[in-house]
Amino acid sequence: MTAPARLPIIDLHCDLLVYLSDVPGSAIDNVAEIGCSLPALTQGNVRLQTMAIYCATAPGSTKYAHLQAEIFHKLATDERSCLTAVKDVESLHNALSGKGDIGMIASIENASGFCEEDEPLEDGFKKLEKIIEAVERLLYISFTHHLGNRFGGGNSTDQGITRDGKMLLDYMHGRRIAVDLSHTSDALAFDILEHIDRERLDIPIIASHSNFRPVWEHNRNLPDELVQEIIRRKGLIGMNFLRAFVNTGEPDALLQHIRYGFEKGAEDAICFGADYFYTSDFPDPTRVPFYFPEHEQAGTSYTYLLERLLEHLTPQQLEKLAYRNVQHFIERIWA
Ligand SMILES: [Zn+2]
Q1: pLDDT for 133-176, tens place per residue?
Q2: How far apart are the CA of 208 and the centre of ligand 1, in A?
Q3: What would the pLDDT profile of 137-146 be if each residue is shown by its tens digit?
Q4: Which CATH number fits domain 4-334: 1.20.1560.10, 3.30.413.10, 3.40.50.620, 3.20.20.140?
Q5: 3-state DSSP of the chain
Q6: pTM for the predicted model, two decimal places
Q7: Cα of 99 to ligand 1 centre, how many Å?
């Protein structure tokens, strides 16, 4: 079998663009400041990294998101960056071959990045098109962050979908962009699924960076019913490495999350969504340390987890977790 250390890795979520747009003196090769620095991605054999365009819901959110889309564009087009945009199945396969640059694809973490609370929805859709133009392709859109916005309720609320949220789903129909449930309230997640079913919309469903709520109780983790919906709809569930969502006292709980996923039928959905971000300016001291040491760097974390899972999973299952499930998902929705 292929040694797990050499398996290619696909990851569904990081906040490198936020770090590069926000932090004075930030650099893509600064291994001390962010877990998904370029040297760490290279060392960890990460072949495709999803780059979230994140913003809070606040005035100026669309300017902030646009800046990150431009940073993505610069990274993708700068010959010296060692990064290239994955925009079709061919570029996905090139990235996975490991012969060229590391692949990256953008996503939107909070729809306030293209539509502010007080502007016409149509203008928001135009801004969304502008972002897509800059990044070439979006893997997914999360409607909200922790709080709510004009589209619906975030994970720390109990609000469901709004009229604008339904219109955003109608807009996404057939565009081959997934809707991400990682930051929705449970109510918004179920409302999204209901609207998709009622209107027979063609929109893939994922949870890009969420673990399992029965393993660790947190509103950012998925209840079983949503896990089963994602499996049934052939979506993806990306395992999150943040201590707050793994288990605040027990690093091996991340292995439990992964094994729980396999036991619950998520064998073809489970993948990585490590959620590396710049933590030094984060206001909440209870979150420190943000990651357990064995999970804090892309250079070693994925390899460590795959090696620890060798005795529990088959070589085929390890491959699915490392990259195959995301590869197959992308091949299917972009075909
Ligand atoms: Zn997030």
Answers
A1: 999 999 999 999 999 999 999 999 999 999 999 999 999 999 99
A2: 9
A3: 999 999 999 9
A4: 3.20.20.140
A5: CCCHHHCCEEECCECHHHHHHHCCCCCCCCCCCCCCCHHHHHHCCEEEEEEEEECCCCCCHHHHHHHHHHHHHHHHHCHHHCEEECCCHHHHHHHHHCCCCEEEEEEEECHHHCCCCCCCHHHHHHHHHHHHHHHCCEEEEECCCCCCECCECECCCCCCECHHHHHHHHHHCCCCCEEECCCECHHHHHHHHHHHHHCCCCCCEEECCCCECCCCCCCCCECHHHHHHHHHCCCEEEECCCHHHHCCCCCCHHHHHHHHHHHCCCCCCEEECCCECCCCCCCCHHHCCCCCHHHCCCCCHHHHHHHHCCCCCCHHHHHHHHHHHHHHHHHHHHC
A6: 0.97
A7: 30
